[in-house]
Amino acid sequence: MNIVVKTADGKCIVRPDTTWEKDAEDLYVPEFVNGISFTPVLFARVSKPGRSVSSKFASRYYDSVGYGVLLYPEDMIDGSETGFACASCLDHTSFLTAPFFSPDTLGKEYHLKAGDKEIFSHAEGTAEMVEKAIEEATRFIYIRTGDLLAIELQPRKQLVSRDEESVEICSSFAENELASFKIIF
Q1: Helical segments of the chain, H only
Q2: 23 with 97: CB under 8 angstroms?
Q3: In sequence order, what are the residues at sequence separation of 6 or more whose Cβ sits closer than 8 angstroms to the Cβ of residue 25?
Q4: In contact, 112 and 79? CB cutoff 8 Å
Q5: pTM assigned to the model
Q6: Is-contact 100 65, C-beta < 8 A?
Q7: What whole-number distance in Å separates Cα of residue 69 and Cα of residue 76?
Q8: Is the dihedral of CA 32, 26, 113, 147 positive or negative?
Q9: From the CB of residue 140, how many other CB atoms can be counted at a distance below 10 Å?
């Protein structure tokens, strides 16, 4: 199982399943990391394997959706060709939690908070977004049953630094709490 990511700038990358934190457990940041950035994502669970899937048929390739957040250790993103790849592999940094929802729930409100401050909200998720992302990703990547396809909804933004020691992240979708976890330095 992989996490296929369509980045905010339209590229497709793959995060390993070791980054998936499906139970929203607290993240204890390694000592070599001084800052964490984030990007919220709309994701879909792949229900059928495929390559070169047209968006016309993409609805057949996923069965549920959800919202989550991808975390990036900024210290590892040094501008080199491998920096971003390394940052995308840090364990427990893909918070894509259950429950998954029916695709017809798209368009409802998603909220992401850091402490008491809302840092992102979104209600523009559509099946077309997911299906276009499936088409684009499968130009390069063979998707398999169980993979997750995540669509970044904004470019990375700074979330927390070692100076702050910890922050609690809470998210909700369609009035359902999705995740609540702490990032602890």
Answers
A1: 83-87, 127-137
A2: yes
A3: 92, 181
A4: no
A5: 0.94
A6: yes
A7: 18
A8: positive
A9: 13
**Burial (Cβ within 10 Å: 0-12, 13-18, ≥19) of residue 51:** exposed
**Helix residue ranges, H only, 6-160:** 83-87, 127-137
Q: State the pairing for strand pair 27-28/176-184.
A: parallel
Distance, in Å, from the CA atom of 64 to the CA atom of 66, rounded to the nearest integer, reads 7
- Structure token digits, residue 152: 């970044």
> Residue 16: which of 91, 109, 114 has the closest Cα?
91
Q: Enter the tokens of residue 67.
A: 């919202």
- Longest CA–CA span in the chain (Å) reads 48
Which range has the worst mean pLDDT, 48-52, 108-112, 174-178?
174-178
Which residue is listed with tokens 């993409």? 58
pLDDT digits 0-9 by tens, 94-143: 999 887 999 999 999 999 999 999 999 999 999 999 999 999 999 999 99
- Residue carrying the six token digits 């684009």: 136
How far does Cα 160 stand from its chain's mean position? 17
67: β partners? 42
